[in-house]
Design goal:
Blueprint lengths: L5 H28 L4 H21 L5 H21 L5 H19 L2 H20 L3
């Protein structure tokens, strides 16, 4: 078992941080430009989920890749909802494209396996220290 390489750590850290910034921008725009309605509240929840997904990626949690896949689907649904209602937001489109690109890069770089191994190593280390302190 190995720890993450520097490239993988950078992908997680920078990719997660930029994703959070884009998703927060989308959420701020959403709150400033929409009217109160059930659909707009659900879209705000989608953007909050995207923020959570990228935060988990930045902190290198083992379930971040699964959250990113779910986030891709949800952000696509939000973008489709906007397009169906004849609304175009460039930042929402950028969030969708960025989420897809980061998810593909995470899975192409074999990051889910490495994150699971890292979590296992941390668990074993914590258990080894349990009786000594």
């Amino acid at each position: 078992m190995q720890d993450l390489s520097n490239q993988q750590k950078d992908l997680c850290g920078y990719g997660g941080a930029f994703g959070v910034m884009i998703a927060v921008t989308v959420l701020i725009q959403h709150f400033n430009l929409t009217r109160p309605h059930l659909v707009t509240y659900s879209m705000a929840a989608i953007y909050a989920f995207a923020i959570t997904s990228f935060t988990l990626l930045a902190f290198q949690k083992k379930f971040a890749p699964v959250f990113l896949i779910i986030s891709c689907i949800l952000v696509f649904l939000a973008e489709a909802t906007l397009i169906i209602n004849f609304v175009f937001s460039l930042i929402v489109f950028i969030l969708f494209v960025y989420t897809v690109i980061i998810t593909v890069m995470v899975y192409m770089g074999d990051l889910p396996k490495r994150l699971r191994e890292k979590a296992l190593l941390l668990k074993v280390e914590n258990e080894s220290w349990q009786g000594k302190l």
